[in-house]
Amino acid sequence: MKGALRSPPHWIGFVAARYVSRGRRNSPSPVFSVLGIATGVLALTVIIAVMNGFQLGFIESILEISSCHLRLEGYPSENETELTDRISSLPGVLSVLPFRELNVLLRGRTSSPRGAIIRGVPADALDRDPGLAGKLEMENGIFDLSRPENIVLGAELARYLSARVGDQVSLLSISGGIGGGSITDQEEGSRFYNVSGIFRCGFYEYDLGWGFISMEAAAELSAAPIDAVPSMETKAPVLGIKLKNRWQDQRVMDEIRKLLTLSGQTLSGQTLSGQTLSRQAEENGGEGLSSWRDYNRAFFGALRTEKLMMFILVGLIFIVVGLNIFQSQRRTVLERREEIGLLRALGASDTAVRLIFVWDGFIIGFAGAGLGLCLGLLVAFHIPAFFSFLEGAVNFIISAINTVSDQLGLSSGAEEFAVFSPQIFYIKEIPSRIIFLEVVLIFLFGFFSALMAAWFASGKVSGTKPAEVLRYE
Q1: What is the mean pLDDT of the chain?
Q2: Residue 242 in 3-state DSSP?
């Protein structure tokens, strides 16, 4: 009998499952521990999914519309076609799009002037750059830059200018390139463009302050007079390079440097880092190759810090639940001293008995994390429906309160509830984005918080002496 329990410990899981299913005599039910883990995993999954939706929406809008993954400046414009083709053929490159940017003043027929950024792109820009095409939703008209007098405006900018498709807007380059016109001499320096389309990307800054014209029109606008001070608008066009995976930017930058060296277009005659090239681009008139990590460092760093802090703060739920499981397991060890003594007397080792309680934590952690993950993914994939249900439930309660108040002759100032009101927030619906690795990490946090709590709480098992326990039984 002494060695009866020294066989392979298949009985450990069975005993642990009975402990969990039957509960504990004077301790909280394991169900509460499971629900605690599930609540933490559910909350963290939904919060991180919504935060990813907002943050990745901002990041992708910046990288796909106003920015790009790599920028090549200072190259001779006469070699643009050949250079574009050769860079496009590199592994990992998705698209290459030349462009010019202009700071301008726009005026509608009845509106006051408004500053904007106008980007000159080829007429087939949306065909060349699928990322840009995916972000620009045409509300009215089409993205037509086949004629040099056409312009495409952001939805909020068009609304400010009171411009519709087919209307004319006047444009004045702030560099004063056309006819030497100044900001105060707008009639002489302005040109008129026909609105061919109105886009909306969902990023308020771009919808209010961006427009597109043809590359030829931008080149004409950026032609400054001889005595003008060189500025960004007078430089050669920029090549905006999009990658299939933006995290491979350093590798592609090395490939582009080799390509430029072989083609005779070296970057200052040596291989430099993206940050050094960006610094040299300012010193030598714009020649340089830079990555999205360099010119968006502050903004992307702030978003990363925000997400990390939110992850930590919400993750404190697991610490609270883990401490609850730890105290519950310690109490269970003390309550079941007789059973532990009996198992030890039958030949079970300290490790085997301890594994009973570790398996207890394993079952609680796996059940809680699995339940929370399933519910979290269900909510995250149906965020609009979930918040619509939430708003409907709250508004039903508010309506009931208002009805009762009216019947009692009391004034009720309760108004309808909206989680994200379109009048306040510039969004149509709440975005959600699931990242697989983050979901796995959240599951493991919930699972290991219960498992580690059970492991540390079961440490007192080794101090249980069978003879002392059974002596008084």
Answers
A1: 76
A2: strand
106 phi/psi in degrees, rounded to 5: -115, 145
Q: Collect contacts of 201-205 with beta carbons under 8 A, ≥24 apart.
A: 201/61, 201/65, 201/135, 201/136, 201/137, 201/154, 202/57, 202/61, 202/137, 202/426, 202/427, 202/428, 203/57, 203/58, 203/61, 203/62, 203/65, 204/156, 204/426
Q: Which residue has the tokens 């090239």?
A: 277
117, 102 Cβ separation under 8 angstroms: yes
Give per-residue pLDDT as tens, 40-96.
899 889 988 988 888 888 888 888 888 888 988 877 666 778 888 888 888 989 999
Q: What angle do CA 322, 327, 328 make, to 5 degrees?
A: 95
Average pLDDT over residues 341-364: 72
Spacing of C-alpha 473 from chain mean position: 61
The whole-angstrom separation of Cα 76 and Cα 289 is: 14
Residue 175, amino acid? S
Residue spans of beta strands (DSSP E) within 266-393? 288-291
Query: Which pLDDT band, with edges at 50, 70 and 90, does 346 fall under?
Result: low
| 73 C-beta neighbours (distance < 10 Å), count | 20
> Quick one: how far is CA 392 from the chain centroid?
28
pLDDT at 455 over 50: yes
What pLDDT was estimated at residue 176? 45
Q: Are 360 and 454 in contact (CB under 8 A)?
A: yes
pLDDT at 10: 66
CA distances from 452 to 35, 250, 285, 321 (A): 17, 40, 59, 12
Evaluate the CA torsion angle 296, 298, 299, 301 in order and state its sign. Answer: positive
Pairing of strands 150-154, 191-200: parallel
List, in sequence order, every beta strand (DSSP E) within 64-167. Answer: 70-73, 93-107, 114-121, 137-141, 150-154
Whole-prediction pTM: 0.70
Q: How confident is the model at residue 198 (pLDDT cuts 50, 70, 90)?
A: very high
* Residue 134 near residue 277 (C-beta atoms within 8 A): no
pLDDT of the residue at 101: 87
Instruction: Report which of 288, 252, 290 is spatially closest to residue 73, judged by C-alpha positions.
Output: 288
For β-strands 150-154 and 210-214, DSSP reports them as antiparallel
Cα distances (angstroms) measured from residue 87 to each of 90, 93, 146, 274, 348: 5, 7, 25, 17, 69
DSSP 92: T
267 phi, psi to nearest 5 deg: -95, 95
